[in-house]
Amino acid sequence: MKLFIPIVLVLCIYLSGSVSAELHGKSAIISTATDTSAISFDASDFSSLTAFTVCINAASETTRNYALFSYATSTHHNEMLLWLQNTTDFWVYLGDLQIKFFIPEMNALLKHICVTWESQGGEITVWVNGRRSIRKVGGKGRVVKGAGLFIIGQDQDKVGGGFDKGQSFVGEITDVNMWDRVLKPNEIELISQGCYSDGGNIIDWGSTGFTAMGDVAIEDNNDCSI
Predict the structure, then answer these.
(1) What is the mean pLDDT of the chain?
(2) Which of 59, 69, 75, 127 is deepest in the core (most CB within 10 A)?
(3) With the C-alpha atoms ordered 182, 187, 190, 191, is the resulting torsion angle positive or negative?
(4) Closest C-alpha to 72, from 36, 43, 99
(5) In sequence order, what are the beta bridge partners of 178?
(6) Is the pLDDT of residue 2 over 80?
(7) Residues 87, 175 contacting (CB under 8 angstroms)
(8) CB-side exposure of 172: number of CA atoms within 13 Å?
């Protein structure tokens, strides 16, 4: 007697949640230096932060100094600022605090950059393509105040303005996310590989509302990220 053995095909489907917002799978492209081109975010409200992770995927052939990510409040225009100098000197500003890291040269190839900070020990770390820098200490005991404005592409000298053409970002930027905690190393590695579907709970590139100002083009980023 022949035995009939059923063959079961298991189909695994990756569920990534809602990704219907305009910026999901998109890049912001700024082709020329201006004092107007930027993207501002309608970020989730918070009163203060004692920790954060900011992740950005960006490429630029600009060799001068420029702002990659800016957060300004009414009390400090550099409440938080990620600043690139001479293509390799990466500065993290927290109010009057400035911490410098040396990273691989920014160029035409997209680089995934994350910055983590926590107040209790003041530990600041920069991650590039999933690999971490040496850890540094700064901003111990301080907080990042709420009720400000997040912008990419310009350095804010006042909330939402005071832009300088000579400090503007020119290039391509995508997958900007921010969390109110320090992500674990394995989470950052997965994000850098495009294998982490959840966006930040403060800024989520896939769902946070945004305003594109000036000469900013929103285009498909043509990668295979989820």
Answers:
(1) 90
(2) 69
(3) negative
(4) 43
(5) 54, 203
(6) no
(7) no
(8) 15
Q: What share of the chain is helix, strand, coil (3-state, %, to 5)?
A: 5, 40, 55
Mean pLDDT value of segment 70-85: 97
203-216 tens-digit pLDDT: 999 999 999 999 99
Among 125, 106, 128, 104, CA closest to 115: 125
Hey, what are 46's tokens? 């918070």
- 15 has pLDDT over 80: no
State the average pLDDT over residues 187-212: 93
Structure tokens at 163: 């832009």
CATH class of the structural domain 26-217: mainly beta
Q: Which phi-psi region, left, alpha or beta, contains residue 95 (left: φ > 0; alpha: ψ -120 to 50)?
A: left
Predicted structure pTM score: 0.88
Centre a 10 Å sphere on the Cβ of residue 5 and count the other Cβ atoms it contains: 6
Q: What pLDDT is stored for residue 18 in this prediction?
A: 35
- H/E stretch holding 188 reads helix 185-192
Asked if 94 contacts 77 with a C-beta cutoff of 8 angstroms, the reply is no
Q: Which residues contact 33 (CB under 8 A, 6 or more apart)?
A: 62, 165, 166, 168, 170
Do the beta carbons of residue 52 and residue 179 sit within 8 Å?
A: yes
DSSP string, 42-110: -PPP-SEESEEEEEEEEE----S-EEEEEEE-SS-TTSEEEEEETTTEEEEEETTEEEEEE-SPP-SS-
pLDDT tens column, 124-134: 999 999 999 99
